[in-house]
């Protein structure tokens, strides 16, 4: 029996954490984007009437100022009738906007998850009319839940709420023109504004500055979603954070890591903290190693120019895989409140040792011909220098230096142009002491239990167990307790961007990266990245479509680990 229905228009929406349950630590003095603030004492009477859980938080920040927006929100004045949400996609002509952002907004609209009064604006330098934007967007919209008949009608309605303004990213004047248009659409209602920075990082600051000065809301909230990369190392990331904080307070910055919006990643905490069978095993006492595996079966096609400046360690490991690791390894948070969760994640990251050169293997894909088709080398990409040493594959061993995880290797593997597309979390347990069944056909040292959380594709959670083969004799084999999502749940899984956009609109920060998390994450990788660059270490070449460099096996073997994704059982599922 399902516990909830994943539908905004019905109970699912009601089951999402309510705004009153979210943390709102508002800075005492706020930069221009945050709107006016009022002393908190005005609201103490109202606050004392709230539930104990809310009160705990509110009392904690009693000395802060409270924003008008926050007051209206807390007091329930930001109602559907008198408030609007304007979403501006900055860089609307780009790849991410077309591929992910507009489709996600449409899916939210289709599911009745957007507020009653909302407007979407595309903003970019390209010249486009509203009609041209709609035509561009319409090409990427799909009727995801296509069983319902009214999809094309919904599409038309959605497109009717999309508009475009052409402007430069560094022009306060152009953003002031946008502001004027936004106001017209807001029709005097309370204005809440979300800016999604879907632009290259070198122009983030220009856009934030101009949006801040010329297009922030005067009476509601203003939030900015920032896309990765958040810098290239500790220094550049700190500079970006500092730059953003000239115009925004931390609570207005929504740093997106779309892996946090993936269903199975969000489910990690549910699995751990709501099932008695897992949490007691979640430590060095029972877990031998944890593997975080990201594999893509295509190269950097089309994104080589961007990728060559970053490489796979910055592109995947430092953010997506490390975020999963932090969620996996954190202690039980005090509550599901964003700050409580992020506090625990930061503690894990700070407990980790910076990655060492001897604990990393890097690779780069080379050309390979198979079945008459020649697949290109990374350096065949016209936008990549022929002598590039940028890794397209990396395997690493990391350690969490605390009482729970002391000595447990957390192995990461990430690669492009490999044999398969797959993201998994694999937990290999210790062997059963005593080996009572050793003589019955199974080497229990090798056949340890393994929990696999397959993030994508074909989302699944399965546990490998040893089981008696039915019959009069006593022989064991390895079987799977298998929760395959497609079989268990009929509902299509929402795209990560849908969840994250909805959270940003609702002010839910749990799945976004806080600046101290980012700082701790970069501290783990920056020394190694510098060493790789200073020593000009050459990546091991691996053929396009292969399983990656053999060095990854030696690294795992050093810690007495075998990569779980290479075992034959894997393919039975
Ligand atoms: N694409 C993806 O799959 C992913 C992207 N990201 C991140 O999201 C952001 C957007 O990505 P994506 O859409 O691929 O980016 P694009 O390269 O497509 O750029 C988006 C828009 O920005 C404008 N632009 C591009 N280059 C410049 C420049 N040098 N100076 C000024 N404006 C420029 C262009 O619009 P115009 O010329 O009309 O102004 C372009 O349409 C980036 O930060 C990227 O790292 C993160 C994860 C995945
Ligand atoms: O952030 C990124 O993620 C994509 C992979 O995302 P997925 O949701 O399709 O798994 C990756 O291809 C890209 O290089 C990277 O920048």
User: How many β-strand stretches?
Assistant: 20
User: Which CATH C-level class of the domain at 261-427 and 514-572 is it?
Assistant: Alpha Beta
Structural class: alpha/beta
Describe the strand arrangement of the main beta sheet, using strand numbers: 18-17-16-15-9-14-13-10-20
| Portion of residues within helices | 25-40%
The radius of gyration over CA amounts to: 25 Å
Q: Predict the CATH topology of the domain at 261-427 and 514-572.
A: Dihydrodipicolinate Reductase, domain 2
Main sheet: strands, sense, barrel: 9 strands, mixed
Could you tell me how far the N terminus lies from the C terminus, measured between alpha carbons in angstroms? 24 Å
Uncertain runs are: 1-7, 10-65
The 3D shape can be described as: globular
Distinct small molecules? NADPH dihydro-nicotinamide-adenine-dinucleotide phosphate, the ligand O=C1O[C@H](COP(=O)(O)O)[C@@H](O)[C@H](O)[C@H]1O
* CATH architectural label of the domain at 261-427 and 514-572: 2-Layer Sandwich
Mean pLDDT: 86
Q: How many distinct helices?
A: 18
Fraction in beta strands: 15-25%
Give the CATH superfamily of the domain at 261-427 and 514-572: Dihydrodipicolinate Reductase, domain 2
Function: Catalyzes the rate-limiting step of the oxidative pentose-phosphate pathway, which represents a route for the dissimilation of carbohydrates besides glycolysis.
InterPro entries: G6P_DH (IPR001282), G6P_DH_AS (IPR019796), G6P_DH_C (IPR022675), G6P_DH_NAD-bd (IPR022674), NAD(P)-bd_dom_sf (IPR036291)
Keywords: Carbohydrate metabolism, Glucose metabolism, NADP, Oxidoreductase
Family: Belongs to the glucose-6-phosphate dehydrogenase family.
